[in-house]
Amino acid sequence: MKLTKFFSILGLGLCLMATSCSKDEDKPLTAEDVCGTYSGVFTVSLSNAPYATDNTEVKVEKAGNNLVNITFAEITGSPASSGRPASKMTNLKLTNVKLTLNGSTASFAADPVEGAGMMNGKSAAINHSKISGTFANKKLKLNFDFSFGRMYEMMKALLNGKYEGTKK
């Protein structure tokens, strides 16, 4: 009888030990996990035609409760015509992009998104824009439709950008 009781208690103890929580389990993401600097490629098209492909950094910074600012360092576009210099967009900063955390992934969305940057050395607003994207396993993927400065009014066209980067 004592032996049966001993093995019952031993079996119960082993079951409890085998099902205990592990320290290796993934903890839910926080905004701080998503924020940081990313290195990757930003591909931009204009009316489905290639416009620019740049290796660029993107910074994600907390802007408030479930809001982030996303800044693209630099994008150099194709020349509008031969003999004209390529357009250079720098410090494109998108403000107050909604961040949704879901376990080990996060998603971004804003339509419209506000922002500004520099176009060929002059300050310009980001217009007619929306952004969406995801973050998982230290990888950031963004889809971004926008016009810059007076581009939309002049050309009636939107730039479409896709960014894939890895957190540094």
Automatic annotation (TrEMBL):
One Pfam family linked to the record: Calycin_like
Keyword Aminoacyl-tRNA synthetase listed: no
Name of this chain's protein: Lipocalin-like domain-containing protein
The entry's keywords: Signal
InterPro entries according to UniProt: Lipocalin-like
UniProt domain Lipocalin-like: residue ranges: 35-151
Signal peptide: 1-23
PROSITE patterns: PROKAR_LIPOPROTEIN
Natural source organism: Alloprevotella rava
This protein's record includes keyword Signal: yes
